[in-house]
Specification:
two-stranded antiparallel sheet; 6-stranded mixed β-sheet; 8 strands; 2 domains; alpha+beta; STM4215-like; single chain
């Protein structure tokens, strides 16, 4: 991916998703040890997505989406290109399914806490950035959590979900194209009278020079 471009929502959610895919497996091990749990009580994540599927077939699943962009602040210039600090309203969902309402609720709550810890760990989030100028960062003050009702499925299986909402800001660049510039001194207008009964012909001869430069 080119660096000197605007990346947009698809990059914002993929950035977080790739970070979580790298971070969550090792973080789960730490939390199992700290909480004295096995992988049945705090399972590995089966699937990481950046879109909301029509149906869920893997459990647990983590889904990260971008809902909107809320701010565009120009913060400077980079090699003649304007640089913006862009804020994205994000959500990371946690979906679980297991047997029993209590077990499902506890599993959902535990996994949500692990994901919360990952999103709050800003040094780790930055560590996945191959170029520091992106300055990807989660605003801790914007984070909040919501938990769904339980959904009874076939048998004794129960589904539950949660999401963590937050704002992610990333530095992005508008790459200005080099454009030709018309030299005003090279424009001349001539009027020619071609005779009685004939139309007046206005001939505009324009000469121009093209020079490299960035549009304003």
């Amino acid at each position: 991916m080119a660096y000197d471009l605007m990346h947009g929502a698809q990059f914002a959610k993929s950035y977080v998703n790739e970070y979580l895919k790298l971070d969550i497996p090792t973080r789960l091990v730490s939390y199992r040890n700290g909480w004295d749990l096995n992988d049945g009580s705090l399972p590995d994540i089966e699937l990481f997505l950046v879109h909301e599927p029509i149906a869920l077939d893997h459990w647990p699943t983590i889904i990260t989406v971008a809902l909107s962009t809320g701010s565009f602040e120009q913060i400077g210039m980079v090699s003649g290109h304007p640089e913006f600090r862009v804020g994205y309203s994000m959500r990371t969902y946690v979906w679980v399914r297991t047997e029993g309402s209590e077990e499902t609720t506890i599993m959902r709550d535990r996994l949500t806490t692990v994901v919360r810890a990952a999103l709050l760990d800003r040094p780790c989030l930055r560590a996945t950035d191959p170029r520091s100028t992106w300055q990807a960062q989660i605003d801790q003050d914007t984070m909040r959590e919501e938990f769904s009702d339980l959904t009874l499925l076939k048998g004794d299986r129960v589904m539950a979900g949660s999401y963590i909402a937050y704002e992610l800001t990333i530095n992005e660049i508008v790459a200005r194209e080099k454009l030709g510039i018309v030299d005003e001194e090279g424009i001349s207008i001539g009027v020619k009278n071609v005779g009685i009964g004939e139309d007046m012909v206005v001939a505009a001869t324009t000469s121009y020079t093209t020079t490299g430069g960035y549009s304003e």
